[in-house]
């Protein structure tokens, strides 16, 4: 099922124009890439916010409709307001069905509930949560599954252990020295136990505290006598 994004072409550029669009509940955006020239567009803040709630929007080839034209694109960059977490700008990259696409896709860890070691309270350490991949647009996956069902304590999975969808490759493993660019994706280990060290009370210090308290009492009594005299 394709995802459609509706947009309107815009002519005005600059910070002032962008601020006016945001006041009108629109998001300034741009389409670039391919043989066509970059195109400035605007999106409905409500529509794009709704679409971004679906994880598949980030990992799909989208149909971007501007007037009577439709471009096949992927999300390239999303900017958000640092305090309000509101989308302030989006970059779309045109894709060609016949050209390889380089993008990032998430890792989905499956089999956690079925893993016996994890059910006994051990930890799954996730060191990599997304990877850069290369594929044709038609082969773009919504994510890569990492099956941890059979991992035991001390076991780990690396990038080279991942089962990739057909037509998908991990870009970092395309170097001649694969081992040098391989990474540990996850591992299973025993939980870390934080031992609380008991504070030892030194008798000498305790006696010193008592002595200070006695001196304070004597000093306070002396002050009270002086007050009574007055």
UniProtKB/TrEMBL annotation:
InterPro entries recorded: Rbsml_bL25/Gln-tRNA_synth_N, Ribosomal_bL25/Gln-tRNA_synth, Ribosomal_bL25_b-dom, Ribosomal_bL25_C, Ribosomal_bL25_long, Ribosomal_bL25_short, Ribosomal_L25_dom, Ribosomal_uL5_bac-type
Coiled-coil region = none
Report whether Nucleotide-binding shows up as a keyword of the record. Answer: no
- What exactly does this protein do? This is one of the proteins that binds to the 5S RNA in the ribosome where it forms part of the central protuberance.
Protein family: Belongs to the bacterial ribosomal protein bL25 family. CTC subfamily.
Organism encoding this protein: Candidatus Pseudothioglobus singularis PS1
Q: What is the protein named?
A: Large ribosomal subunit protein bL25
GO terms for CC?
Answer: cytosolic large ribosomal subunit
Question: Keywords, A to Z?
Answer: Ribonucleoprotein, Ribosomal protein, RNA-binding, rRNA-binding
**One of the record's GO molecular function terms:** 5S rRNA binding
Domain Large ribosomal subunit protein bL25 beta per the UniProt entry, residue ranges: 103-192
Where's the Large ribosomal subunit protein bL25 L25 domain? Answer: 6-92
GO BP of this protein: translation
> Where is composition skewed (Acidic residues) in this entry?
195-230
Q: Which PANTHER family match?
A: RIBOSOMAL PROTEIN L25/GLN-TRNA SYNTHETASE, ANTI-CODON-BINDING DOMAIN-CONTAINING PROTEIN (PTHR33284), RIBOSOMAL PROTEIN L25_GLN-TRNA SYNTHETASE, ANTI-CODON-BINDING DOMAIN-CONTAINING PROTEIN (PTHR33284:SF1)
